[in-house]
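Hello Y.,

Per our agreement to keep a running log of every chain we model this quarter, I'm adding this entry. I've kept the format consistent with earlier entries: sequence first, then predicted structure.
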Amino acid sequence: MDYLFGVSFNNQGKPQFFLANYEINLNDSVVCETLKGIELGKVVTNPKEYVVNEEDNPFTYILRLANTEDLALYQKNLKEAQDALKIVQNQADKLSLDMKVTTSEYTLDQSKLTISYLSEDRVDFRELLKILASIYRCRIELRQIGPRDKAKIIGGIGICGLPLCCSTFLNEFDGISITMAKNQMLALNIPKLSGHCGKLICCLKYEDEVYTLEKQNLPKVGLRVNYNDQVYRISSINILNKMVRLENPDSIVIVPLSAIENKIITNYNPNQQMKRSNDIKKKKKEKKDEEN
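Predicted structure for the entry above:
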């Protein structure tokens, strides 16, 4: 019987899935062949039975459980990758290349060294690549990344108090726009809406669809309503608790959405409504004078 396991590499992003037909436990270290090459990862999911379709099988098999030699080599690679980080940055500075090296990573067999860097523009690193190839004698990949990729690699704690989404479960970055913040009626305070990467926080997208659907059944902000014989303007709506903020020159009230149902003024005439409001105030004043 074959089993499907989720394996995490360098504790980044969603796990990749591999097959095995022998006993492997949660948190075991395993050696797998990925798109990068031979890598050492950790099993992060419990096994699930899987029926292999030989004609259409998207999963490959775990090569082996990691032994003491694999673990020792992995630790050695981590140290040498950190040393390579300084050397690559030093060589880039000598060539006056506008790039900031962020990470370097060896495959387990040291057949490939992947170097990630940040840069605002495209970098001609052909000369740098020649120098690095003569130093390391292995396949070298220089990969330009953006601010979001950097946050994903480095990690951190978000404004919610939890580890960053990009470093825990997001594999791809969807487009986030300020329109999503407007749709959710959030204050457009860019520093508060920005994440560690300096871009808009990814969680703006999570509830955007729900807000869009909910707003279809709500009155629009700016409409006038007749509430307690006064004309108010809808200034904001709390979609979650269905409370509406109403404003006019004399007062501000917050009422349940149900309190203004069927009270929206469709053909609003400011002059006519002002006259009506003044008449109501006059009648109230006259009634008060009579009582006195």
